[in-house]
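Methods — Computational structure assignment.
A single polypeptide chain was analysed. Its primary sequence is given first, followed by the predicted tertiary structure written as structure tokens.
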Amino acid sequence: MKKKQIDTLVLFITILGASTSVTAQPMRGPLVVSPQVNPDNTVIFRFLAPDAKEVKLSAQFENKLVPMTKDSTGIWSVTVGPVQPDMYPYHFIVDGIRVTDPHNTVIFPNENFQNSIVEITGDTPLIHTVLNVPHGTLSYRYYFSPELYIRPVVIYTPPGYEKNTDKKYPVLYLLHGSTDTEETWTKVGRANIILDNLIHQDKAVPMIIVMPYGRAYPVISKSSGSLRSWDNLQEFKKDFLNNLLPFIEENYRVKTDHNNRAIAGFSGGGGESLYLGLNNPDLFRWVCGFAPGMQREEFDRNNAVAFENPALTNQRLKMFWIGVGKDDGLYSVISDYLKVLDQKQINHETFITEGGHTWMNCKLFLTIVAQKLFKKA
């Protein structure tokens, strides 16, 4: 090869190598830390958007959108608080479009828009704070339904379950809200952490918690509305009784009598829990609704077995518990439902608290209920 050709080839390879190097090592933007929770419980939120015209923060602890300010590097930021310690969903609105925080990996499991989550722990540990105590095990499992195919379920087994191989445990079936998923009770409701802490404090009986997916998809579409719709109740009941319950009792060391089965749920899942629990008294002696979804015209239909013989209902149930916040959109209809229970003289425990239809209240409801379950003779 001639020298001129060799020089040209070397120059081409050099240029190609330089080009590849530039492609493989792109210039990095400014480092963004978000959210930043400070010792005084204030929180700094940041979002990188150099070309955006407006960015606002939408957070559950704020009653309005909070404008953010852009710096010279294109980072929008705002400091809020101090914030009451808890876990809160939030997102950004960038030029009118909802956006999750790209620098936060903690996401709210939901079938609609998935918020980011910020946790403010404060100086005093909360009941859902991860502490240095024995922890149970979370298992992601699947069971089969001839109608619904492969179904997901998250299962909590308490500390010591793997070692105490001769011991059987009571079981709580815990249902999520209408647009949530089988993961929401652990990733947002912290059910496993709450039970870890209560069991360690000897305040709760060690129990297994079963958290299934509450929509009978694909028979019932994901856009069909509340889980407590009649069509979903019928399909979910069939799956629950014929597939989920046998799967749990065949694969886990659970006590299989009605005294050791409980069912509870939030919102649409609360409607499911009341429907299944009150209409199957031979299966459940403990029935709980956390701001349960319901409508007045459905009272008689969805409570048929319980309403038919109130005296027998009282005899069968060890606990019938309902909790709701005063600012919850369901408060009015639930209040009317409680009046019906009083008129029919059906025994129930009621817990009315502040706040709305939130997972902060759900954690409170579960904490109260978990300390009551499986303790009455």
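Note: The chain has two domains: 36-120, 137-370.
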